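User: structure tokens for this one?
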Amino acid sequence: MRLAWELLINAVEVFLIYDFLVRYFGYRAEGAAKYAGTILIAGTAFSVISVVSYAVPFEMFSTVAVAVINIIFCSCLLKGHIFEKVFISVFIMAAVNMIAVGTALVFSHIQSTEVFYLFARLDPVRMAAMVTTKVILFAVTRLILRLRFRSELSAQEFFILLLLPSFSLAAAAVLMPAALKHPEIQNTVLIAVAIIAAMNVLIYILFLRFSRLSRIRQDYALLNLQYAGEKKRMEEVRRLYEEIRSVRHDLKNHFVCIDLLAKQEKYKEIRDYIRKFSQEVQNPDGAVLFTGNDTLDAILNTKFSFAEQKGIRCAAEVSYAQLPLAQGDISVLMGNLLDNACEAAEHAREKKISVRILRQGNYVSICVENTVAAPVLAENPGLETTKEDRSLHGLGTKNIRKIVEKYGGMMEYREEGKLFICDILIPFDTGYGV
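Assistant:
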């Protein structure tokens, strides 16, 4: 009876922990791997808890081992940043431990008995204590899920926040065995556990606070990036306009020269002159893009002109230019896509960029392809910046995703050989452009 009850309670605990982690981060894995991995890892955690805790109550090895197993589970199967996965995995185990220790001490205090006798036999009091522990754990996990906030903290910030739940586990490893061996200090241990639990609540509040401040910093950095991008694009448009003005200014002289050659019936010279003139005013692939969308034209022509100066061959196929986005968002989205493509293609052996914008059912499809020097996604699936100052770099990709999500769109990065491809689908019912 006792063994069956212990196994049942441990199974409930493992279920609550892994249900919480999955709800908090969400699955990254798909299909059978998701379920098989969860069953395997959760089964391992259940075995560790059952074997160790049955042999020695409040043995800290099982808590630490399950925390490590949780980190492995989150890293392999769930979404999210690795530092946040480590913090939440340790924090939830600290909460489990504090709840178990606190509940045991409270029940032994209410019964005016030593905590040792609470674990010596299976009776209604101990069963009530164990059920209460799981009810509190359920309530705590649901509260955390309601309060959770997507975090963009740095590794240093996560490390600092991780210290307190780690110290809580260490403190519980000392306090509970002491209470078992020395019943006279049970009340003191209970007070100490309450203080530690309160400190863990405080650290989670700080975690939420830091996360919100971090998001504000990220939004501010994104706005600065958008401003810098718009300023850069305005400069590129101004330069292109100056080139057009220069050509227009000289156009009269060119016509006078052509007229003079025509009067002299020098038709071969006229053809040569026109051919040379065309090469001077057109970009290298001999075409200026006119899609019917002024913002899109400005972005494509200025970015292609900039790319071709770096020896990158550019091509575009635009069969549907009326994008269902605000003009400013078109500028930010396409500007960042082409900036990233240009930066990557510049280092490739064969330098190419291709843009396709067309209609697919109820969506507008935007596909940007560029060559790369080496595969990217295998080593960096999240497309995190590899530059030293992470606060100033890697925001272009975040800006792209932010705009796609703003309009309820979908996006995917993939690679085919030496091609890096960004596929975006934007639904028509966004209220813009159509």
